[in-house]
């Protein structure tokens, strides 16, 4: 390969708050890099064309599709997966309510769902049920029927809004 | 010993209560272990070359370019795999006349559907395997295709498997009473043509298998996303010529199944064969595009049906002619004739009438094979029955609820045998309907509907009663010769610290099996559910059983667990009585301690009993049995199936300009017998409803006339998303089965069984003022505006 098109790219980024340096294939997707190279298997690959949301990650503060972003594009980025957010305790209230409300069944969509919901909750305020459903319209769940998830998000948002007000 | 389930103050009352799922905490932290998360030393990846044609002869395969790709290790053809993997034939003896040709793991000389594997490329990474697969050069010779089910048996249609003589896979006619005479003399006859769209399951986790063959130990281990690990163990052993004891199937977390993962797939068998040949671990994870063309499809039916009713609304007769096409092969080992067979068994299910005729015709075609998917045949049978009942009600000017009330089996009529020869032990159609009407405020909604109609807003209310077949006995598969277990087992043991381990043959795919088992064992034994660790999904460890399908987990697996727990309780109390010099009948276990059963006074914690049995056995009488482990297996014996029942209602609004349906609310009352964990049952029902709503409004696999799959991606095949789904109210009536102490029947499929019919009836209720009617699912905006006559081209 020439310098014009290198098939391996050196990247340096932080993942879940820890520095990572790697040489990645130019075509490797971020979710495959995290899963295959770093063993962070929480984010899942399902549709691999940006529709289902199972691979949703937090990159530089935003929820992004890990299957649509190349690992090479994450050079310099701040990446968080469900494992890191769990270790931080950043979404513990949400996870607790998910368990209590049974807002998951097989759990395959759940990590991506949680990262997407985290983005909505971090925006603050008290979203309506319709707004919650709308925000989740990029995250497939084939098991639950969504109502439990909407209930869980609504209750966490209410508690957080109450805390914010107090 | 009988547990007084009705008494909420009984000791150890965990059955009937919502307790958390022990595996949920792991899953929300991203600590699940799905097959693709497992990495083994020397592991390689396989990608399949799949036929781009619906029917083609394979003249030759040139793999030279593929082998040159960096990382590619080997390329396998169908012939290579056939040398280690015997083909299979998916027929069942009790489905008389069912035929299917031998099917290979990889097509040997002819491909019969778009997506059939024709070669396998093994490489050090999935990416390299895919690069190699793209370079395999297959010389195909296209053959004539069979795609239209309704002309598959015409003389001019080519015969897909010439050795079979024709394209008929299976035909069954069931007739009872004098159907023709009843139709001739009936007050009203209503007929309709129904179509149900071709669906697939779209499990979020694609089909996945990782197989390791260790020649040093002559041991095959398969980590597999499956619902039936013991069945897969048997199949791998049979077709790869291994002793069954040398095959171990492990399923850790499984990311959605819905029946999709209960079948034997050619590419998964090929993966196991490759592992055996290469003597190393081989991983196959389907990508989404190959999921659409290689996961089983279902529900592709066309039906002509009619109903005869009297002036009083009594159903006099039903006549159903069901057609379905199953692709080129019946799917192993459950067969693809079951869905049509279920339509014959289930039509008319809730109703007490005498004259019934139903025929199913199952034909071969060049499309992805179809087989059992959640609520097999149920949504089709319920749509036919409930669609006709509503049409008959409209024809004689009767309320849809009233016509059902006049025909449903009385709640005190059981046991009864239906016109389809199904035996019902005990159902609760009237009590369920009462509860539904109360929950939904039927009269209030009808008033609201009438008011809004005056303003040009068209809302509809749809009701659908249904029966659901659960807890199957060997009459489903075993009597037909399939090695699919209808019994299931559970081993419960107590460890020295008093903790309990339960090993069960039923599996967890997210339904909450582990939570259910922990509750049952906890109550049966006398400890808290948190003290019970449940192990499922490992054929080397758990008792042989059927796994989780046909809503058998609670009814079969739960009962085995309860009986094993009760037996272990007796063993513990026998030891305790000896230690305490007490009468065993005067002892009980409550909250993890041996107590006096009358006073409740604590006598000894289980930890102390465990310490003595395991470490100071010398202090116990010599002959005292000291097995703190018991295994029980359970199978139903009185009824072939534990039928459940329920009723659903849909309230929706049709935009008559655009044809878009907005779901406003949905209700379901169902009777699954004993409810073990109310929250989990409700969520099974909700999830099931939404899968049925998908079938009603969005989901349809499209093919062109050449058998090309047209919408094989998640962007094209629509499934329900959060924004379109309504809130759902769930209610229960409990009629426990007398077949077991637990009394549990299944609940996994009731939602899917009834919701498409409820939506269809609601749409037609909304459209009735315009004289329009839809019966072809999914009810897309286009089909609705065509029915309204505003789109004609």
TrEMBL record, chain A:
Domain named 2Fe-2S ferredoxin-type is located at 9-85
Q: What is this protein called?
A: (2Fe-2S)-binding protein
Q: Name the Pfam families on file.
A: Fer2, Fer2_2
Alphabetically ordered keywords of this record? 2Fe-2S, Iron, Iron-sulfur, Metal-binding, Oxidoreductase
Automatic annotation (TrEMBL), chain B:
- Family annotation (Pfam families): Ald_Xan_dh_C, MoCoBD_1, MoCoBD_2
- Enumerate the UniProt keywords alphabetically: Molybdenum, Oxidoreductase
The name on file for this protein is Carbon monoxide dehydrogenase
Q: Which residues form the Aldehyde oxidase/xanthine dehydrogenase a/b hammerhead domain?
A: 29-144
PANTHER family linked: ALDEHYDE OXIDASE 1-RELATED, XANTHINE DEHYDROGENASE
Which SUPFAM superfamilies does UniProt cross-reference here?
A: CO dehydrogenase molybdoprotein N-domain-like (SSF54665), Molybdenum cofactor-binding domain (SSF56003)
Q: Does the keyword Oxidoreductase apply?
A: yes
SMART domains reported in the protein's UniProt record: Ald_Xan_dh_C (SM01008)
Methyltransferase is among the record's keywords: no
List the source organism.
Roseibium algicola
Q: Name the coiled-coil region(s).
A: none
């Amino acid at each position: 390969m020439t310098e014009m098109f290198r098939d391996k790219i050196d990247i340096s980024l932080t993942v879940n708050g820890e520095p990572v340096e790697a040489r990645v294939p130019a075509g490797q997707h971020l979710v495959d890099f995290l899963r295959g190279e770093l063993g962070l298997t929480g984010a899942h690959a399902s549709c691999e064309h940006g529709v289902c949301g199972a691979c949703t990650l937090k990159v530089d503060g935003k929820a992004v599709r890990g299957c649509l972003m190349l690992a090479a594009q994450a050079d310099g980025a701040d990446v968080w997966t469900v494992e890191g957010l769990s270790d931080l305790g950043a979404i513990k209230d949400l996870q607790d309510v998910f368990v209590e409300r049974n807002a998951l069944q097989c759990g395959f969509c759940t990590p991506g769902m949680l990262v997407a919901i985290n983005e909505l909750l971090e925006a603050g305020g008290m979203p309506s049920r319709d707004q919650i459903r709308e925000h989740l319209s990029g995250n497939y769940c084939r098991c639950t029927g969504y109502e439990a998830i909407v209930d869980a998000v609504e209750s966490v948002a209410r508690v957080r809004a109450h805390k914010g007000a107090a | 010993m009988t547990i007084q389930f009705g008494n909420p103050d009984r000791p150890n009352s965990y059955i009937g209560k919502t307790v958390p799922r022990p595996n949920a905490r792991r899953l929300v932290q991203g600590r699940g272990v799905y097959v693709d998360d497992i990495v083994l030393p020397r592991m390689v990846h396989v990608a399949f070359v799949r036929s781009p044609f619906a029917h083609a002869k394979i003249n030759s395969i040139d793999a030279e370019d593929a082998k040159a790709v960096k990382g590619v290790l080997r390329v396998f053809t169908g012939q290579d795999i056939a040398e280690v993997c015997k083909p299979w034939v998916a027929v069942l003896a009790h489905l008389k006349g069912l035929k299917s040709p031998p099917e290979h793991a990889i097509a040997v000389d002819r491909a019969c559907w778009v997506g059939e594997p024709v070669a396998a490329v093994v490489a050090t990474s999935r990416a390299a395997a895919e690069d190699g697969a793209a370079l395999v050069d297959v010389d195909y010779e296209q053959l004539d295709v069979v795609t239209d089910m309704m002309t598959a048996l015409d003389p001019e249609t080519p015969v897909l498997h010439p050795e079979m003589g024709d394209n008929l896979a299976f035909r069954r006619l069931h007739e009872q009473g004098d159907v023709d005479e009843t139709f001739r003399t009936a007050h009203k006859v209503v007929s309709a043509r129904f179509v149900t769209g071709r669906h697939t399951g779209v499990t979020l986790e694609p089909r996945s298998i990782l197989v390791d063959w260790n020649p040093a130990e002559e041991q095959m281990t398969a980590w597999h996303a499956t619902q039936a690990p013991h069945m897969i163990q048997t199949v791998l052993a049979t077709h790869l010529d291994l002793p069954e004891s040398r095959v171990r199937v492990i399923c850790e977390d499984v990311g959605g199944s819905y029946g999709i993962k209960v079948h034997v797939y050619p590419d998964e068998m090929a993966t196991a064969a490759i592992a055996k040949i290469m003597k190393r671990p081989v991983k196959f994870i389907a990508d989404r595009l190959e999921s659409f063309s290689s996961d089983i499809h279902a529900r592709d039916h066309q039906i002509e049906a009619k109903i005869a009713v009297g002036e009083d609304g009594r159903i006099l007769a039903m006549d159903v002619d069901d057609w379905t096409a199953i692709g080129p092969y019946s799917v192993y080992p459950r067969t693809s004739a079951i869905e049509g067979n279920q339509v014959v068994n289930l039509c008319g299910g809730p109703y007490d009438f005498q004259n019934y005729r139903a025929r199913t015709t199952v034909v071969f075609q060049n499309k992805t094979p179809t087989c059992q998917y959640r609520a097999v045949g149920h949504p089709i049978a319920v749509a036919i029955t409930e669609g006709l009942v509503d049409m008959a009600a409209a024809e004689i000017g009767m309320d849809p609820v009233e016509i059902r009330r006049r025909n449903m089996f009385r709640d005190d009529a059981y046991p009864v045998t239906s016109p389809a020869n199904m035996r019902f032990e005990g159902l609760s159609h009237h009590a369920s309907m009462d509860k539904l009407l109360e929950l939904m405020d039927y009269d209030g909604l009808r008033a609201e509907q009438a008011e809004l109609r005056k303003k040009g807003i068209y809302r509809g209310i749809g009701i659908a009663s249904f029966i659901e077949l659960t807890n199957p006995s060997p009459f489903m598969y075993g009597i037909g010769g399939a090695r699919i277990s209808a019994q299931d087992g559970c081993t419960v043991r107590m460890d020295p610290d008093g903790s309990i381990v339960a090993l069960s043959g039923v599996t967890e795919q997210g339904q909450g099996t582990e939570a259910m088992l922990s509750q049952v064992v906890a109550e049966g034994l006398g400890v808290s559910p948190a003290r019970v660790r449940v192990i499922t999904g490992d054929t080397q460890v758990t008792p042989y059983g059927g796994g989780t399908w046909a809503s058998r987990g609670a009814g079969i697996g739960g009962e085995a667990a309860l009986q094993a727990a009760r037996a272990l309780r007796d063993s513990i109390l026998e030891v305790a009585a000896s230690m305490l010099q007490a009468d065993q009948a005067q002892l009980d276990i409550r909250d993890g301690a041996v107590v006096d059963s009358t006073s409740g006074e604590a006598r000894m914690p289980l930890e102390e009993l465990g310490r003595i049995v395991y470490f100071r056995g010398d202090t116990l009488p010599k002959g005292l049995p000291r097995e703190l482990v018991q295994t029980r297996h359970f199978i139903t014996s009185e009824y072939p199936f534990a039928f459940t029942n329920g009723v659903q209602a849909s309230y929706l609004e049709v935009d008559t300009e655009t044809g878009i349906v907005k779901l406003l609310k949905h209700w379901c009352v169902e009777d699954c017998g004993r409810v073990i964990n109310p929250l989990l049952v409700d969520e099974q029902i909700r999830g099931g409803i939404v899968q049925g709503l998908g079938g009603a409004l969005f989901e349809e696999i499209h093919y062109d006339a050449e058998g090309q799959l047209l919408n094989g991606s998640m962007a094209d095949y629509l499934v329900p998303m959060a924004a379109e789904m309504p809130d759902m109210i769930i209610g229960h009536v409990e009629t426990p089965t007398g077949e077991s102490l637990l009394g549990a029947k299944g609940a996994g499929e009731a939602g899917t069984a009834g919701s498409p019919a409820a939506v269809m009836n609601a749409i037609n209720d909304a459209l009735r003022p315009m004289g329009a009617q839809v019966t072809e699912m999914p009810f897309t905006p286009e089909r609705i505006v065509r029915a309204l006559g505003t789109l004609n081209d």
